[in-house]
Amino acid sequence: MFYEFFIFEIKYRLKRPETYFFFLLLFMFSAVGVEFVFQGIDLGLVKKNAPLVIAKTMGAITGLSMIISSMIMGVPVLRDFQYDVTSLIYVNPIAKRDYLLGRFLGSFVVLLFIFSAVLWGMMIGEFMPWNKPNEFLPFQLMNYLQPFIWVVLPTLFFGAAVFFATGALTKNLMVVYMQGVVIFVLFMITKGITNETLQALFDPFSLTTLTKASKGWTVADRNAALIPVSGIMLLNRFFWIGVGILALAIGYNKFKLIVVNEKVSPKKQPQEIKSTAVIFTKRLPLVTPVYDMKAQFVQLLLNAWFHSLSILKLISFWAIILCCFVVILVNSVSLGNAYGVDSYPTTYFIIEELREMSIYFFMIILVFYAGEIMWKEKDVNLNLIHDATPLASFVNLSSRFLGLLLIYAIVMLSLIAAGMLFQTFNGYYHYELDVYFFGFFLELFPFLALYTFAAIFFQALTGNKFMGMLATIAFAIINVAIGVFGLEHALLNFGGQALASYSDMNGYGHFLTAYLWVKIYWVLFGVLLLIFASILMAKGNETGLSKRWTSGLKQIEKSFRIFSLVCLTLFISIGSYIFYNTNVLNEFWTKGEQSDFRAGYEKALKQFEYLPQPKITAIKLKVDLFPSQRAYQIKGEYLLTNISPVPIRQIHVQKLLESNLTLTDVSFNCPATTNKRYEKYHYIIYELSQPLASGQTLRMNFKQTLQPKGFEADNSDIDVVDNGTFFDNAVLPSFGYQKKYELQEEDDRKHFALLPRKHKAKRDDVRELVNARSGSDSDGINLDIVISTTAPQTALTSGDLVAKWNTNDRNYFHYKTNQQIINFYPIVSADYQVMRDTCIPLGNTKNKPVDLEIYYQKGYEYNLKRMMESMKMSLDYYSKHFSPYQYQQLRIVEFPRYRTFAQSLPGIIPFSEAIGFVMNIDDQKDVDMAFYVTAHEVAHQWWGLQLEAANVQGQNMILETLAQYSAMMVLKAKYSDKKVQQFLKFQLNEYNEAKLKSSKKELPLALVENEEHIYYNKGAIVMYELQEQIGEEHVNKALQHFLKDWRSFNKQKKLNRYATTLDLIQYFRGVTPDLKQHVITDLFEKVNSMK
Amino acid sequence: MQDLIISNLSKTYKNGVKALQDITLQIPIGMYGLLGPNGAGKSTLMRTIATLQTPDFGSIQLGGLDVLAQPNELRKVLGYLPQQFGVYPALSAELLLDHLAVLKGIINSKERKEIIQALLHKVNLYEVRKQKLGGFSGGMKQRFGIAQALLNNPKLLIVDEPTAGLDPVERNRFYNLLSEVGEQTIVILSTHIVDDVKELCPRMAIINKGKVLVQGNPLQIMENLQGRLYEKMIHKNELEHYKNEYQVISDRLYLGNQIVHVLSDKHPGSGFKLIEANLEDVYMSQIFNA
């Protein structure tokens, strides 16, 4: 008997098309599985077919595909009830054991067949033509087989057992559909467990377990070792197999071979009222049906409400919502940011977190209920009655569409309520309802609406709930893929671009215009989809796509034709308008065109890379900012000096490569002819009629204008904005070849037959030893600059403020440096509040006070005191131990969170609104990172601004590692040792994490190139160790001498190159006793593992 | 002329079944019975008239309205009760009626309320109007079905096998309701139960295998058999023999013996007695002759 059931199940499944469909789906998905699962994660030196990578990919795919498992395993028993054959089957003398076991094992065998596609798919994936051989190990069957058996099979068994048992016991199809989702939610919940071991134990898909089990593995381990069959992995697998067995046992015991389950259907039969004596004899009242536009509109609204209400009454819906809120509650809103300190729960942070956590659930709701809502009549067999009504098909579908939107709106409102509750619990009472509203209804809502259009369209196109759902999911995945592979134009990529980050300073800024136009365009496209769908959803029981289409066409009315035509016209017009803005008024470059251009640039101009060019020694600028137009006009004058030994005949001027930016009126105080051979690259060569002899100077005048036209749809242009303009002198004309325009990606370079790009020159590269930056235009300048901006904004840059005035409602600021600065200064303008203070740095010999200023936006006062104190303490420490502070002012200025960094320029530190300002520092448990980051940036006034380093390997150790050291010493002066240790521990974690992801062999600190985890994180640890070993004073002494000898300006002996780590280490060695010299070697010149 | 005129309607399904073959009918106001065995094509014809299916050939006219060209115009005056239908189990009768009334264009909420109240009384569901449809019995559901079909004062009411599953009392109530509606409306009643037609319909057609076998007034149709119909009680074993010898149009058991009805122009011989024809005999003779 068992065998009969077993074989029946297999035969049944083998006849069903979805079995093969699932197989194919998993197969194709698995073939690109590694790319999908590890999307955006740098695997570093770990190969793509390493067992660990395969195991994680398999685990993730299995997890995502639990719904398939649920659809196969949940229905074997339920099916008998669904088709009402239970009476026929259960009446026979069958044993419960045979029945259940046969059904279970039969389905499980089929499930194994389907999921074997993961194994085959991933193996095939290794041989895909686009794979790069250096990312793969030689093929090894075991690397696939072992993770499949050890990771996938137990998960499958557990899922199969649970799904089978619940399906058999509940006999409810919706439960079967939902439980795959529920398991996924369970997994999300485990991610919220903070105890790593417990989290690893309870992860049903073993993903965190794998991470935990492979903790501390080296790259070699990761490439070679199979998945451990011991420790946490063993426990985890046994745990879930155990749960599976338990589920089966419970299911077996509770299940009864009876047809009517009395407990399940306690429905009360309505009492028939036997009051037939009074027969209603009145004539039926007359009704006046109306079908005009107004009536259709009323129908639309009433039906939308009806459909929403019917979803709101579904238990499954509330189950999803419950899951969503449980996930949010368990994961909590993570406010952590890059420095390991929580941020204040500002509204935009909360919204971003809530959106991120709820988006899956919105997509689940969208896909499921679009299917439900479209076929609800058919599901209960009401469709004939429904279709015989004169309701217009478009009104019908639109009301379902609106019904879904209403559901989203309700969920969003509850998320907003949850967000405000969270803020309240965190003692944050600055509720911004408008930000909440726009964060959800402007950013997320249109996205969902567009996908709902698509979902309804796919439901209509496939004519089948299940296929429609799958098509919608496939469509969403393809869309994501298309975005990655380069269909970049907002008019082609479904839904268009996301809205740029909301900034408290600048709101949504100018990004909103483009966003709204593009969304209107896509919504019109959605309406067209809905029109197609409403034709395809012809009334009646026609099947087959073409039949439905022709029959649907016959049913549409004239007014609907006109409406469709209007939509189409609007769609094309708005599309054209957007195209006019993005491609005619502005330039649109595809990624391919950009790469082409960059490759061409390098090929044509690389010859000029080290061509001697004059250096800028003085700059005069008149900058007029027009923030509301995002425009500026700059009139500039460079004083150029030929510091090379040879005469210079040609001045190569490179305009910034940006659309809407014009460079005009370039002239020299010496006749010059223009050579436009490379004009394509905005690279103009001026042939001087008289060569500029060595040591001679030349004046260059120019005018540069930025005048944006229309809008672009790519969220670029963050430099000049309504409130929070921030850019630096890199926008101004530059001289000679610009390395920054080269193609960066190795693959792209290979494609264009370009040589691999060196990250940093070697320490003995004589051509770069004289540069402090790639292609530097200057070895120091004097700056004189007048900036005007719209009142009430304040404009800032480096230098002393020598005058300020207001004319015609514009604020003017005149800044002038009183000494040489490096050629690096910002232009900042926004509406600011100011906190002011002064101090005389301890080590400054002149008794002149330094003005300390923090320019911040209203509402961001949280950490101003910490930052101010840090400025003072830093200035004291550095001036005392390194050298006097060189300027009369130190300003911190806030800029919008489109960029999240802080940066030190002469006397001025632009600081992103997203860091520092909003850190919620708990002095009990946190390190005061607002204090630390400020100290780090202030340190750059020495390391980078007083002393520049040569543009070779190790440059970042001098600039950044020394800034880290300096800031740590200030931190140590202010806070207890415990805090410093906590800081170091955080650095160690960051370093170890980044190291695993790095694809490069690690270089010693002294030779570091651009690896942040080495020069920041490891650097901090190394320098702390150094001062422990040889003493803080000795380190400071070395640095003081290093600075004195190698400073950029006012140095005693003139040097013809910039400093390198070779020089710096000599100073360290100089203060280190012989016994400890090896410490220097170990720390800086070797790669040692950190403890 | 408000008659429903069906001309040369034909439909062949993909699997080769000829569901409708050149059907031509003229249906005036009043009850019209469409009689035929299961699978005769009644439901196909009903669905086609109800615009839920398109024929391969033929036309349907209601008054001046070309139904096939303007299906939605017909739907505005249509009441349709399909042979089988379901309901949302979680909704109350009142709510679903309200929803369907909106779909039918009754957007004036007062009007909607009035017609729903009246219909609920009429079909005797008023007392249970707030209860969930999921708990309704077959008869209650069927009454709900007729209520929804009458929401929009239809000019054409199509009821497909409405009495299946109703007990005699319910069936009776149902007949009363239909005949009342039939006073101003074209009511097409499809059924395989001869009694339904006999009791209600002044006009009727018998269809089988997609063809109209006979149409007209039931009395006139019965007239055709007058004086040609004979009955005899025989032994069960003899049935085969009689079927070979005579044109047997029906046989049934009566007290353990077999009664056969035989059609014959002259008296078939001993034991046979001339009987009055009834509709059932007409039906049987048509089906058998076909």
UniProtKB/TrEMBL annotation, chain A:
The keyword Acetylation does not apply. One of its GO terms (molecular function) is zinc ion binding. Pfam families: Peptidase_M1 (PF01433). Signal peptide: none annotated. The keyword Transmembrane applies. It comes from the Bacteria. This is Peptidase M1. It comes from Pedobacter chitinilyticus.
From TrEMBL, chain B:
PROSITE patterns: ABC_TRANSPORTER_1 (PS00211), ABC_TRANSPORTER_2 (PS50893). GO terms for molecular function: ATP binding; ATP hydrolysis activity. Coiled coil: none annotated. Transmembrane segments: none annotated. Keywords: ATP-binding, Nucleotide-binding, Transport. Residues 4-234 form the ABC transporter domain. SUPFAM superfamilies: P-loop containing nucleoside triphosphate hydrolases. The keyword Signal does not apply. It comes from the Bacteria. Signal peptide: none annotated. Pfam families: ABC_tran. Belongs to the ABC transporter superfamily. The keyword DNA-binding does not apply. InterPro entries: AAA+_ATPase (IPR003593), ABC_transporter-like_ATP-bd (IPR003439), ABC_transporter-like_CS (IPR017871), P-loop_NTPase (IPR027417). This is ABC transporter ATP-binding protein.
